[in-house]
Amino acid sequence: MHTKRDLRQVQKQKLQAYQGPDRLTEETALRAKLFNTAQWAAAKTIAVVLSTPMELNTQPIIAQAWANGKQVVVPKIVAKQMQFVAITPQTAFTAGALNIQEPEENTVYPPENIDLVIVPGLAYTKQGGRLGFGAGYYDRFLSTYTGQTIALALTPQLLETLPLEPHDQVIDQVLTR
To answer: Is 128 annotated as ligand-binding?
Structure first.
């Protein structure tokens, strides 16, 4: 079995190589599945990342959340801790830690008011195992989070098994094609 570090490199390459109409079709299908879940319907506040080009495009998720009257919160790294900050269509962004877009706003959104976290990652298993990007921000956040978690797994992200460790947090539901 690969080490997590090796596996992260492989997964990044697979995701960067997975482009074109098939990927766009799959992303659209996964978002449609998300919008049809009971968790989405019930959630008033959704936490989602501002995706990088390698990741599933989350802009349509943010737009749909706003269209459904939901509050959207995105991660922001402050003093090595991941916090969530509310965004609106008027929010200004800057490149933050790891060169990921972050809101300039600093007001921390209370985690207990987040109903659904759409958890990013490099790989997932159908059982909810997740390989993150290696910084541990989500595992630390999810270790105390009590709401719902969902991941959207593109075909190259779905693996049979992952080298999970005790601190790795399991996702409630992994949506696949």
So the answer is: no
Q: Do the annotations mark residue 122 as ligand-binding?
A: no
Q: Is 24 annotated as a binding residue?
A: no
Mean pLDDT value of segment 49-62: 95
d(CA 151, CA 173): 6
145 is in an annotated binding site: no
Residue 55 assigned to a binding site: yes
Model's pTM, two decimal places?
A: 0.95
- Kindly list the distances between the CA atom of residue 95 and the CA atoms of 77, 89, 105, 152, 154, in Å, as whole numbers in the listed order: 11, 17, 13, 24, 25
Q: Does an H or E element contain 10, and which?
A: helix 4-17
Q: Is 112 annotated as a binding residue?
A: no
Confidence of residue 100 (pLDDT cuts 50, 70, 90): confident
β-strand 45-47 against 116-118: which pairing, if any?
A: parallel
Q: Which residues fall within 8 angstroms of residue 126, CB to CB, at 6 or more apart?
A: 158, 174, 176
pLDDT of 164 higher than 80: yes
Q: Is residue 130 a known part of a binding site? A: yes
The answer on whether 160 is annotated among ligand-binding residues is: no
Rounded to whole angstroms, how far apart are CA atoms 162 and 4? Answer: 8
Mean pLDDT for the chain overall: 94
Q: Is 56 annotated as a binding residue?
A: no
Determine if residue 136 is labeled as part of a ligand binding site: yes
> Angle CA(172)–CA(42)–CA(83) in degrees, nearest 5?
65
